[in-house]
Amino acid sequence: MISFIRKAAKTSQAMLCAASILFAVSAHAADPIVIKFSHVVADSTPKGQGALLFKKLVEERLPGKVEVQVYPNSSLYGDGKEMEALLLGDVQLIAPSLAKFGQYTKKLQVFDLPFLFKDINAVDKFQQSDTGKSLLKSMENNNITGLGYWHNGMKQLSANKPLHVPRDARGLKFRVQASDVLDEQFKAVRANPRKMSFAEVYQGLQTGVVNGAENPWSNIYSQKFNEVQKYITESNHGVLDYMLITNTEFWNGLPDDIRSQLEQILEEVTAHVNSEAGALNQKAKQAVIDSGTSEIISLSDDERAQWVDAMKPVWAKFEDEIGSDVINAALDAGK
Ligand code: SIN
């Protein structure tokens, strides 16, 4: 009788233990997967809007399964730190400007070459080409997977003096992103480039640490750069676009069904960002005009040709690093 009671007690103990493991596993399984999306720009810009749309669609379609937290305006990590945070698994999605990948691949420097793309349509065509798509996978050895390209737009030159021709830029200090190509681009017009993170630009311009910068209209207006730049030259001399990236191990470790739903959502968000970016930049340009802070300078054909002549020699300096095949594919996209 006693041994029967002991046996029964042991069995119920074992059942209790199994039940609590089951409970723990199912409680864990019920926790949503958290995706932190950190970026450095304002919510109103193409990237800011894309991040918010991604959050909205994920929470509509994967409720309780995936939670998206968006951190705009360098509120979680600034330029210098966001890539490191992605690699450490502290954030799961970021979309750095294509100028900020030099440490991981030299091929993406193609996007910084001045006057390589005549407009955003040429950029788009190159991004969708086989070469463009292959660049999304070019950093997987570094645990970085590219999930798509997001447009911002063509860059405009701004300064505290009017810039009509390259010699107007001589001796001025220009803020540049962390890109050796952009460094050389300003050296080519005998200006002094200074690498600086995006969050520091407003103050840099305000205090005169730098005298000028380059950015698309959406960034100029949303960061109030126009309030500290009296002149903006509509130069369209280069592109500022993004690669949306994730940590390869994180992405491959997601359950297949979740990953494929996220990929579907990202495809929709990417299409939306890329179709709306032009309109957002036009709206920001109009807002700058309406604010009356800055004179907008349009270039004559001759003035533009002078900028092209001065800056184009930069291509040759980076041809070996980027690869002439990549540069030619980008040129083909513009034909
Ligand atoms: C961004 O658009 O993400 C920042 C661009 C910059 O650093 O100028």
Question: What does it look like?
Answer:
This protein is an alpha/beta fold. It has a single domain (31-333), classed as Bacterial extracellular solute-binding protein, family 7 (D-Maltodextrin-Binding Protein, domain 2, 3-Layer(aba) Sandwich). It is built from 13 helices and 11 strands. The chain has helices at 2-30, 46-61, 79-88, 120-128, 130-136, 180-187, 201-207, 217-222, 248-252, 256-291, 301-311, 314-322, 324-333; strands spanning 33-38, 66-71, 93-94, 144-154, 156-159, 173-176, 192-195, 212-215, 231-233, 239-247, 295-297. The chain has a 5-stranded mixed beta sheet, with helices on both faces. Strands 8-5-9-11 form a 4-stranded mixed beta sheet. The longest helix is centred in the C-terminal third of the chain and has 36 residues, at 256-291. The protein starts with a helix and ends with a helix. Succinic acid is lined by residues 40-41, 97, 152, 177, 198, 215, 219, 240.
